[in-house]
Amino acid sequence: MALYEQITDNHNKFLESLRHRFLDEDRKAALQRFENIGFPTKKDEEYKYTNLKEITEKGYNFFPKESHNITKEQLEQLHLGEENFDWITFVNGKLHKELSKVSIENVDFLSFNYALNDEKHREVFDTYFNTIASNDSAFTNLNQAYCKYGFFLKVPKNVVIEKPIHVFYISQNQEENTFYNTRNLLIVEEGAKVEIIESHHNFDSTYVLTNSVTEIFTHPNAKADWHKLQNDNDTSYLIDNTFAKQEKDSLTTVNTFSFGGKLVRNNLDFIQNGSNINSFMNGITIIGKDQLVDHHTAVHHNFPNCESYQNYKGIYNGNSHGVFNGKVFVDKIAQKTNAYQQNNNVLLSEGATIDTKPQLEIFADDVKCSHGCTVGQLNEDALFYLRARGISKKEAQALLLYAFANDAMQNIDIEPLKEKISKLLAEKLEVDIEF
User: Fold this and answer.
1) What angle do CA 256, 102, 114 make, to 5 degrees?
2) 141: which of 34, 63, 193, 206 fits an S-S bond (Cβ 3.0–4.6 Å)?
3) CA–CA distance, 204 with 201 (Å, rounded to integer)
4) Which residue intervals define the domain SUF system FeS cluster assembly SufBD N-terminal in the entry (predicted)?
């Protein structure tokens, strides 16, 4: 049975499995919106370069087995050497405290499912939950109808969380293709600060489809950094929907590093809701074979004296396919806006393709906005320069590609993460780099 039929058939069973029922009507309404919209096809402008049939024509298990045999040694291989980090580990949708380490205090840090069951968080959910996630998207509506797994974090006023938090989503011991709808809610109150790292890992040969929705609320003078490390196996599909709403004088960063997964779609939406806001989006994509990574970004400049910065780099080999569609909207009152958007790509083989479309919609007259994209091969003069100094052609190519991608991670201030990304770059490019 294809995914669409399974969604409606499984929903009543899913609702009956929940302990909390206060969202039942909202879930039913979301499912109805999904049914009205249906999965996007290549006839839809937003998905004209991304064919989802490979995903939607498969069948999936909506109720993953909770049992697993993940070892701590396997988990250690996923870590970044972050001895001083905190981390939480979800296996088959369930939070496992024995595989997690949480030392932070004076914050509300819970599994999403637990937070839904906790009466004291009801007002917070009424205020924030699903207020910035789009109701026009099939995948966000589907997530709202089925969300259960994920985490809730509220950082109180002026609390600075010194240690980065790494969130692991792991699927293992599943005999059937499995469907996860993960949901994350991050609230960073005035003057607070937090850094999150998110990664997904499928340990099985069966397919995993993850439909994730994250809502980030950054209050005045607060700082939130979210780093997405996408390096899953070839039987993994990820639809990631991230929405960030910022208040005055805040800074929010979302970095997306895409190295693995069969098909990855990243929808990233920033909403600026005050003046003197800074929004940063950086991405590095290195894929091959028949992988597809699609980045769709949007920044809504709604107030004056704000900045946004987008820098996405892509390296494509084999028969891989990349997509970048970046939109910047500048409202008529958003004077003194400074918006930068750049997408640069290198194609390493004849079978590799990239579709890139930067867009600006500006209704203010006193702004600095720029966008651009490049698609090409390596610089032959630079390649000749390196080879003339005794460096092999393969190594020279890899060094140039490493330098090409490297500037997209300059704003990472978590050293173990920066080192991990550098090592992944070196591995993908098959070059020895000393750190």
Assistant:
1) 85
2) 34
3) 9
4) 4-167
Cβ atoms within 10 A of the Cβ of 48, count?
Answer: 15
Q: Is the pLDDT of residue 20 over 80?
A: no
Mean pLDDT in residue range 231-250: 97
Cα 262 to Cα 334: distance, rounded to the nearest angstrom = 39
CA distance 251 to 272: 10
Q: Which residues touch 362 (CB under 8 Å, ≥6 apart)?
A: 328, 330, 369
The strand pair at 178-180 and 108-111 is best described as: unpaired
Task: Note the pLDDT tens digit of each residue in 24-81.
Answer: 899 999 999 999 999 999 999 999 999 999 999 999 999 999 999 998 889 989 998 7
How many residues does the structure list for the chain?
Answer: 435
Cβ partners under 8 Å of residue 407, min gap 6 = 311, 313
| Contact by Cβ (8 Å): 208, 181 | no
What is residue 431's predicted lDDT score, i.e. its pLDDT?
Answer: 53
Q: Are 296 and 310 in contact (CB under 8 A)?
A: no
The answer for residues whose C-beta is within 8 angstroms of residue 146's C-beta and 6 or more apart is: 7, 11, 14, 27, 62, 181
> 352 and 323 in contact (C-beta within 8 Å)?
no
Q: Which of 202, 79, 201, 94 is nearest to 149 (CA)?
A: 94
Q: ∠ CA 167-189-145 to the nearest 5 degrees?
A: 55
For 221, the token pair is: 């003078």
- Confidence (pTM): 0.95
pLDDT tens sequence across 277-307:
999 999 999 999 999 999 999 999 999 999 9
Q: Is 330 helix (H, G, I), strand (E, B) or coil?
A: strand
- Cα separation of 124 and 247, whole Å? 17
Residue with the two structure tokens 């939950």: 129
Residues 6+ apart with CB under 8 A from 404: 313, 315, 344, 346
User: What is the token pair recorded at 233?
Assistant: 């196996």
Q: Name the token pair of 219.
A: 């209050």
Q: Are residues 272 and 300 in contact, defined by beta-carbon separation less than 8 angstroms?
A: yes
